[in-house]
Write a structure and sequence with these properties.
single chain; 454 residues; alpha/beta; Aspartate Aminotransferase, domain 1; Aspartate Aminotransferase, domain 2; 7-stranded mixed beta sheet; 5-stranded mixed beta sheet
Amino acid sequence: MSDARRRLPAVSTLLEYEGVRALHTAAPREVIADAVRRSIETARRDPAVGPDSETAWVAAVTAEVDRALERSLRPVINATGVVLHTNLGRAPVAARAIAAAQAVAFGYSNLEYDLAAGSRGSRHGHCARILCELTGAEDAFVVNNCAAALVLALNTLADGREVIISRGELVEIGGSFRVPSIMNKSGATLVEVGTTNRTHLADYQQAIGPRTGAIASVHRSNFVIEGFVASVMPSALAPVAAAAGVPLVHDFGSGLMLDLAAWGLRGEPTASDAVRAGASVVLMSGDKLLGGPQSGIVLGTRAVVGAMRDNPLARALRVDKFTLAALEATLELYRDPAAAVQDIPVLRMLTMPTVAVTARADALCAQLKGRGIDCDVVATEATVGGGAFPASRIPSSAVRLLGGQAGEYDRRLRGGRTPVIGRTVDGHLLLDLRSVTESVDELLCSSVAQALNR
């Protein structure tokens, strides 16, 4: 019996198929040739299930070309109900921020050029003025994320010295990264005080000594401890640190700029609250509740922020022109809080009335039913995500895909041209509209229909 692999076509033969030649309008020849080789190699591994006609070979090569041209980083639709989904890129940014980044992308900018002096400037000056205006800080600058800001602060203030921190604040954040591991990379030695559930002011006072470089306060933004608990607020720590002549580093994480209590979200300090508490330096994220691009924001006294800015490590942690432009444009929206709530996608999603979310879910469900997809609308609870407001649940609505094929629906939606990410509850895949920006409602409908009807 002859080996079926001997009958596989040659690369040159497949390249001459009309359907393969047509691919040259979408891809370079070498990409197509590589796709042909991969198609043949796949068939060689199992000829019994390989293409058996010119049409089938063209389809196989086309699929390989599509995979080759597909970008690694792609837009997806977040229908999980987790608004700040770390795995899905956290905060979608405002249209104004996108326009600002695009403006500096077209050509050159004054990234490190002082237009008034006509000489070299510093990128660290960008965003400083508006950050100080909005928060009351004396000085500010931006690095690439909040973890970087923490490492830079401790390396600047306590390299080779001790940093006092409560055991209850040695948290683990996403991706199995632990705050103590990050802090140790700064060159500082951690001195843990108190217990997991209870730390008192006296614990800090007793730990201060000649080797103390700083006191650190890390806001427990991604979990809560209830029951027999005690902790020391930064406002109480600040005078103790000042009396001892050591700086207080406050990592409050979330980047919240506006009080969201009116919408039922309580328990997170705002940036201005954190600055008023009296820490020498306050650190926060730009891509969480602030709603901007990934960044770490440093706020504090002129002396401490200036020392951090002068640290050679700051160069390794600096951000690019796109981040600075997008962040500044986002911050400008906060000058009018009402506009910020409407124009910053994260804030709009978190504060949208439940009735409006339900109306969108009803519309999506009706459209999907019109395309032959069995579904209904159910009440759900969404979450903020990003470690913020960990105990809060936000009333929401979702389209529930019926038919008992949650795993298959999930696979198909993830594999679509625009992937859709939902969540499975009680054996059904839910598409929660709370975490979907209104601007992609139509795209969500077409993406789901295409994925499930193919």
